[in-house]
Prior knowledge:
This protein is of the alpha/beta class. It contains eight helices and nine strands.
Amino acid sequence: xxxxxxxxxxxxxxxxxxxxxxxxxxxxxxxxxxxxxxxxxxxxxxxxxxxxxxxxxxxxxxxxxxxxxxxxxxxxxxxxxxxxxxxxxxxxxxxxxxxxxxxxxxxxxxxxxxxxxxxxxxxxxxxxxxxxxxxxxxxxxxxxxxxxxxxxxxxxxxxxxxxxxxxxxxxxxxxxxxxxxxxxxxxxxxxxxxxxxxxxxxxxxxxxxxxxxxxxxxxxxxxxxxx
Length: 227
Ligand code: SAH
């Protein structure tokens, strides 16, 4: 998979890809991340990427031309499956959306800043708009990093144990059961006996039951959803 991220603040997008699971995925060649600074696609001396709103009103708007140049250049080099704009009014990111996007080959993710982008960018280039939740961020970069993390960890080979993404919360609309590691007892707080029993079938049943109880208690809405 190849992901091209377009931004006016590339600094924000560095560290998420420089450590841990995402870095390993890049090092293994399972994903390529290319970050493009929109200011490299401007003509003006002072590298202008935003301007005042027509009709007045507070807040600057990201201009059409640098975005057009950047996206057009990328599209001339390869075919993209989706050109995504991070936006609070987009489709809400959830696990099933992450699953389906993780199957794509080439993605562009456009990060807004200031008030957002000129509407014509959305009308003419964007194929999908994604929100990471009902709150407003100051820029799309953190949202893009969240989206990338959620999809990259699903690419086969990224997680050490291939099955581990499948047992995460939401994969079958269930939250995860509780997990424990050594020691088996600490300050009198014990790990449930069943997990130490060695009966894999019983352990699996216990986990399924806990996952269901946990979901009923915390997120009953998930049990009504289709997946
Ligand atoms: N004026 C816009 C908000 C702009 S916030 C509005 O009211 O809808 C600036 C940028 O941050 C947006 O262009 C978008 O790229 C990003 N952003 C803000 N909140 C987001 C969210 N919940 N999910 C994804 N991106 C978001």
